[in-house]
Amino acid sequence: MASPSSSASIILPVFTKFSCLPVEIRCQIWAFAAPSRPRVIQIAYNPEAEEWRSYPDACGGLPKIIPVCREARQEALKPYTRMLETWVDLEEDTIFISDPVFTLRKPRSVFMDSDYVGRIKRVALTNDVYMGLKQVHELFPSLLDGPGAVLRKMGGLSHLSLVLMEDGGDYYDESDWEEIDFDGQFPLTPSGEPNEVMDRLDAEDDEEDEDDQDDEGTTWISGDVPGRGASEDLEEEEVWLSYQEEEAMGRISKGYFRHVGDIHFESAKHSQDHWDSWYSYFEQVEVDFAEQQTAAPQWRQPMVSIVEVKYGLNYIGRASALDWTQPGTEENAAPGESGDSAGDP
């Protein structure tokens, strides 16, 4: 009878001739040992470095064989591109933008002007970020793109996930911008005292008022001033917006809600929390995409899925839990209509 100590020690067979195999066979073995899985990579804007970076806690799921040896690492990383300070599979991975500073021009321009933006195929936006883009566009249509235009300019985009968040506030409701008055009043600082920008504008306005008096002493009013047109109004609007964005950056930099760690998405269409509300978000995306299709008939709209966040990585080999839909097709059905039952989410 074998002793407990001897039965507990199991000697695994060792293949000592692996290095003698042809390179092609070794690479095939490494590839089989490194199956890819779709990942969700959360990114955030670093204002000091003025760049977008991935969260270190949200970059798991890379093949386990990467640290084994150089040959294994080279084979495992073949589908991946180095960007955003991590490795990204541009065919399978989703870049998740939950940082609300994406609604501000400077951070968004850093992302949109990057070398990699045209190669990204899958992007996810929280509903707060999406609606924030929409709201600031409605306030400043001459200066800011809406969400549809922003997404259209991501030339390689094939899939959009709109992420419904259960927590966190709407950072861009009307109260954030209520101090803007386009009747000529510049927004004040929280203390109510004029800031330096306002002082400068007031001084410029006083000079303009003096110049606007004609020889008979008539004072022209704002838009009636000869030579004053939309360009000057746009300049004032630009200053107002810049001030508001600076204020917003200060508020947002204090932190915002996000899911920490590795996450994946599941369809909100079948969620107990969102089954009766997801369609209203999809309709909004449809409307925004239709406007962009009119402006750019050659644009190929990405597939859309309304999703919720789940903790943990996708399982290797697991089928997608997302419902992808092409906006504007007849297969879309609201809850309670054909194709979806309000009583059976």
From TrEMBL:
Residues 202-217 have a biased composition (Acidic residues). The lineage of its organism: Eukaryota, Fungi, Dikarya, Ascomycota, Pezizomycotina. This is 2EXR domain-containing protein. Residues 202-234, 322-345 are annotated as: Disordered. Residues 15-95 form the 2EXR domain.
